[in-house]
Specification:
heterodimer; A: alpha+beta; Thrombin, subunit H; 6-stranded antiparallel β-barrel; 7 helices; elongated; B: alpha+beta; 4-stranded antiparallel β-sheet
Chain lengths: 482, 95
């Protein structure tokens, strides 16, 4: 066979021949020249490629690259500093690297150094490969779904290894040659609890981790909560391919939507992209979590190069659907009514004592004028100017904010109970959903799990550490403060 | 471990301990799968055609094996393929 004939062969055939030689294909162990072509679903076709036996790996790889360039079509990975679209930059700001705690060195000045050899050295990459001089330090990717919650792939974290994982924001290139590997301590988080995790069944693979403190300087994403993304819809991924500083890769689409719990897209992803958010490129809502896919690198003589696939070739990259874990994630909405504190009054209306603001009433204390006056004193003391709810019209939680932040106490004579927000959990106790602190429960939500998770999200987001009452044991007002 | 030794098929943690040395000794995931197939307890072994996309990436091997009684157990083994080509058994979980 001549080189011209080699160049005319089906690229997938060339790829599978390389894989068979590498020992990564199911046909491994067969003589060179007889590989299986795979297509989804798992139909298999024998193909005679005996004429390829006379070509070296390097020659076949070169032919493959000439035919198909790199990855799915062309390599769409970009560093974040190269991205101009502000919507994608917002998407990227929610993405976090997962690294081993042992790869961080305390510099003693409020920063940590993230250690990682260059990708080129680590993977013995050929000189033509992009990003080969960048460090490779992350082992997975995650993304904020709530100020205190990171979603990732289940195979990235489990209860046994969580304490060794660090969640690092800002690991990215600032220009073509500068990687941010000196990380401020404030951008490094620990996971304190896995609040949900599932792997295996019908290909699902996801985990939701609670961080040791809320992340207040990065946005959290919106996730699809029901239904499915359509086939052909454009998607993009942001993550840490091969452990590199954060990358964006677009120009991809959903190509198989049949599996119930995941979809398949032609995304340019590598090891280290596990746990990456898959954004809908039209809505910027997260549709999935990258979990598994095609071989990353193939040999090319004495070095390795990125795998090459036709746009619609290879097996595609599997992404767990976000509705799989949406019940664990608050929808992020803040149901808030601002009010003008300077107009707040205690008034008796229709025989009931109320706090009114202009022509509206804010709070109702029934027959208790004392409690109404105490509540107004509290609102005034803290300077509260927004009333917030979970679960209207019959709210399961009410709280108040001061210019969008938690009130800071204490107030003299206040009836307050302190709690540790880092140990709070949503649990079902005797068939009722509650927020619990160890063996004690703090709040009861009956059957409304979603309201319990939303309430906990607000507690963590605003950093509440005290629940306070007016009029116990049957309080007419409950509020939260730091 | 000789091919006659029983694997603790019903206990993921004990199975991981038992299989980890065999994984590390194997030159490839396929060679490890062949070793598994040689075990009398093992009824079926399937090696995934995909990579689990951690860094380093992992291959998944699913094994169906007889437990001590009449039952069987099916496990997925996540095997990391290190950058130097060596293997490490990371995790065993239900498929």
């Amino acid at each position: 066979m001549s080189r011209e004939e080699l160049l005319s062969l089906d690229p997938e055939l060339l790829l599978l021949e390389l894989r068979a030689r590498e020992g990564r294909d199911p046909s491994y162990g067969r003589p060179t020249g007889q590989v299986r072509l795979r297509s989804r679903p798992m139909g298999q076709t024998e193909k005679d490629t005996s004429t390829l036996a006379s070509f070296t790996n390097a020659e076949i790889t070169e032919a493959l690259r000439e035919r198909q360039k790199v990855i799915y079509g062309t390599d769409d990975r970009q560093d974040i500093f190269q991205v101009g679209d502000p919507r994608i930059l917002t998407d990227a700001a929610s993405v976090v690297a997962l690294a081993d705690a042992g790869d961080l060195t305390d510099n003693g000045d409020g920063t940590f150094s993230l250690d990682g050899t260059t990708l080129g050295t680590r993977r013995n990459l050929c000189a033509s490969e992009p990003f080969r001089d960048q460090p490779a330090a992350a082992f997975c990717t995650g993304f904020l779904v709530d100020p205190s919650l990171v979603a990732t792939a289940a195979h990235c974290v489990d209860a046994g290894t969580l304490s060794t994982v660090r969640f690092i924001f800002g690991y990215e290139m600032t220009d073509a040659t500068t990687a941010v590997t000196r990380i401020p301590a404030g951008e490094i988080y620990r996971g304190i609890r896995i609040i949900g995790r599932e792997i295996g069944t019908e290909g699902t693979d996801w985990a939701v981790v609670q961080l040791d403190r809320p992340v207040l300087n990065h946005p959290f994403v919106r996730i699809r909560r029901t239904d499915r993304i359509p086939v052909g819809a454009g998607v993009h991924v942001i993550g840490h391919p091969s452990g590199l500083p954060k990358k964006y890769a677009g120009n991809a689409a959903v190509r198989d939507n049949a599996p119930a719990r995941f979809f398949v897209a032609n995304l340019d992803t590598y090891g280290g992209n596990s746990g990456s958010p898959i954004f809908n490129s039209a809505t910027h809502e997260v549709e999935g979590v990258l979990v598994r896919g095609e071989t990353d690198y193939v040999p090319n003589g004495s070095c390795t190069v990125s795998n090459v696939c036709p746009v619609n070739g290879c097996r595609g990259e599997d992404c767990t659907r976000t509705p799989e874990f949406a019940r664990l994630v608050s929808d992020g909405r803040l149901d808030s009514i601002p009010f003008d504190l300077s107009q707040a009054r205690v008034e008796q209306i229709g025989g009931r004592w109320k706090i009114t603001v202009g022509s509206m009433w804010l709070l109702d204390f029934g027959a208790s004028q004392t409690e109404a006056e105490r509540a107004l004193a509290m609102l005034t003391f803290y300077g509260m100017n927004a009333q917030c709810f979970v679960g209207r019209p019959q709210p399961s939680m009410e709280f108040y904010l001061v210019n969008g932040e938690a009130p800071k106490g204490p107030m003299a004579g206040e009836d307050a109970i302190a709690f540790d927000p880092t140990v709070l959990e949503v649990q079902k106790v005797r068939d009722r959903w509650k927020i619990v602190e160890g063996n004690n429960w703090l709040m009861d939500f009956d059957q409304a799990e979603d309201e319990a998770r939303q309430a906990l999200s607000h507690i963590l987001r605003f950093g509440f550490t005290h629940i306070c009452f007016v009029g116990r044991p049957d309080p007419s007002l409950t509020y939260f403060r730091r | 471990m000789s091919s006659d030794d029983l694997l603790p098929a019903g206990d993921a943690s004990a199975l991981k301990t038992a299989l980890a040395p065999a994984v590390e000794r194997s030159g490839s995931v396929e060679a490890f799968a062949d070793w598994l197939r040689s075990r009398q307890q093992v009824e079926a072994v399937d090696v995934s055609g995909y990579l689990v996309k951690t860094e380093p990436p992992q291959r998944e091997v699913t094994v169906l094996m007889r437990t001590g009684g009449a039952g069987t157990a099916r496990w997925s083994l996540d095997i990391a393929v290190q950058t130097d080509g060596s293997l490490c058994l990371r995790r065993i979980h239900p498929p």
